[in-house]
Amino acid sequence: MQECRRPLADRVEVSAPRLAAFVVQALTRFPESIRRRVLWAAFDRARDAFNRGDLEVVFALFAADVEYGPPPPLHGGGPLRGRGAVFDFWAGIFTRFDENTIENISLDEVSSGSFVRRARLCHRSSTSGESLDYVIVQATDLKGGRVVRQVNILDDPKAAEV
Questions:
Q1: Using CA atoms in the order 46, 49, 55, 57, what is the torsion angle rounded to 10 degrees?
Q2: Which residue has better confidence, 29 or 56?
Q3: What is the pLDDT of residue 16?
Q4: Which DSSP state fits 98?
Q5: Assuming Cys at both sites, which of 85, 99, 101, 112 could form a disulfide with 124, CB separation 3.0 to 4.6 Å?
Q6: What is the DSSP letter of 3?
Q7: CB neighbour list of residue 137: distance below 8 Å, 6 or more residues apart
Q8: Which residues are 118's β-sheet partners?
Q9: In CATH, what number is assigned to the domain containing residue 154?
């Protein structure tokens, strides 16, 4: 990925993650209306990075020892541990499917540093014809401005189309 094609905020997250984490941590002290706008903007940037296949940006603010529960249609095992394992997991998904998209549906701040998002994910392979379309509920916990835990569950297990 050419860094110049990334939005400025994405370039900062990748090149200066400590600074970005500090800014995220500082934002938790802002009024709720400002936090909500910034949070939506951050999840929209993550959506855009995911949709263009820029996993480095998507996982830039994941803690080194993050606990991650992948979406069930993609992973039947237990949680993954560590940013490298999460990155490798998604790199494998992006190899398996040549089209991967996410669409944000809703986003709620449960408490300071804890968020719940609903999102639709679609994965398509033009070579194998394999296709997945599902909605997740994703719980994310931050500490020190970094994602320390993220768990994805199916919003409606009957809704996953294979």
A1: -70
A2: 56
A3: 75
A4: S
A5: 99
A6: G
A7: 116, 117, 118, 152, 153, 154, 155
A8: 106, 137
A9: 3.10.450.50
Find all residues with CB under 8 Å of 4, minimum gap 6, and list them: none
pLDDT digits (tens, 9 = 90+) for 117-127: 999 999 999 99
Separation of alpha carbons 131 and 153, rounded Å: 19
Residue 159, φ and ψ in degrees, nearest 5: -85, -15
* Structure tokens belonging to residue 29: 């002290």
Token pair in block for residue 5: 């094609």
Read off the pLDDT of each residue in 91-99 and give the average, rounded to a whole number: 96
Average confidence score pLDDT of the chain:
88
Question: Rg of the chain over CA atoms, in angstroms?
Answer: 15
Q: Using one digit for the tens of pLDDT, what is the confidence trace for 59-82? A: 998 999 999 999 999 999 999 999
- Pseudo-torsion of CA 81, 86, 88, 89, nearest 10°? 100
Q: Domain count of the chain?
A: 1
Burial of 131-161, coded b for 16+ CB within 10 Å and e otherwise, reads ebebbbbbbbbbeebbbbbbbbeebeeeebe
Side-chain half-sphere of 161: how many Cα atoms within 13 Å?
A: 7
* Residue 52 burial (10 A CB sphere; 0-12, 13-18, 19+): middle
Give residue 19's domain range: 3-159
